[in-house]
Every structure is written in structure tokens, then in C-alpha cells.
Amino acid sequence: MTNPVIQNLESLKRAQSLDSEIHQTHVLQGEIPETRARLNQELEHKKTRLTDLEKTCKELQLKLKEKELELSQKEGQVKKLDGQLSQVKTNKEYSALQQEIASLKADNSLLEEEIIKKMDEVDAIKEEVLKEKERFAEVSKSYQSRDQDLSIQEKNLQNRLQEIIKQREEIVARLPPEIGDLYNRIAMKKEGFALAPVNGDVCSACQMQLRPQVVNELQLGEQIITCENCSRILFYDV
What we know:
238 residues; mainly alpha
């Protein structure tokens, strides 16, 4: 006839194995929001990078238009002054107008160089914006795929958790009430780690040396024995 204490200990070991899996499942469930937060942060970083580039592009385009407008206005002044040359009556006035026209044309030449430079800058930033949009699209697609994977993982973990909790409850329910209650109290305090194997005469959980009487009682196997230090249920792992 099988020793009932040994039978109960075997049931408690199965319960603890399930409790360990329950704990690990909770850990994995807790990692999912952290993973989602990290993915969101990466996506937002790419989005911010793209937004900044688009803003810079618009600012450069605005400056280019300002320079082009300035050039157009000064070219209009040159044209107006050219028209006035035939109307002046003195050489002094004629010379003054020519100097003013020459000064404006020199300014225009510098403006044209600045405009060409701005156009190159706009072309470069536009190309960079296009590349960043492609990178953002790739990251966004990858994020959606990863998020779907996380949702599936989340669902699978929840289903498994419900299954092992049910198995655990069924095992504990079949134990004598006083043993089931003892196990539940210890498991709650010790995060599911309610049992501890004995190595020689030492509790493997807290490394406390057991009294000879406790060792003898364990060897007899007539009752459930707990560690006097950490309160866990003791057993010989054979």
C-alpha cells in the first residue's frame, strides 16, 4: 500500500510545478506591455525624425522663395533704372544711375549664387525626406507585424494560464483540506515556491541545517514536515 504522505507530497510537487509555470507565465505577460512600449518608442522616434526633416524642408523652401522674390524685386529695380538712363540730362546723373545699376547687378549676382545653393539644399533635403519616409514605412510595417505577434502571444499565454490554474486547483482540491490549506498559505507567501528538497540535513531553500529530530521525522514519512526557518514543506528528492 502506497504511503499517503508520499502520495500527498507527489501531488504537492505537481502543484508547485504548475505554480512555477503560472509565475513564469505572469512574467511573460508582464513583458508584453514593456515590449509594446519599446516598439512604440522606436516608431515615435522614426516619426519625429521624419517630421523634423519635413519641417526643415519647408523652411528651406520658404527661404528659397524669399530669395527668389528678392531677386525679382531687384531685377525690377534694374529694369526701372535702365529706363531712366535715357531721361537724365547730365553726365553726373547718368554716372550715378550707372553706378546704382552696377551695384544692384552685383547684389543680384550674389543672390543668384545663394539661390542656386538653396536649390541644392532643397533637393538634398527632399531626397533625405523621401528616404526617411521609406524607412518609416518599413518600421511601421514591422511594428504592425510585431504587434500582431504580441497579441497572439498574449492570447496564448492567457489561455495557458487559465488551463494550468485549473489543473493546479484540481490537484490541491484532491489533497486533505489541512494540507491543501497549508500549501496555499505557504505558496502565497513564497511566490509559489512552497516546497523545498532536503540535501542531507539542510533545507535547500534557506540553507538552514535541520535538527536531527526533523530529519528522523522526514525519513519516517508519516507526516508533512515544514522547515522551522522558512516554513516550506520539506521532502527528500529521490
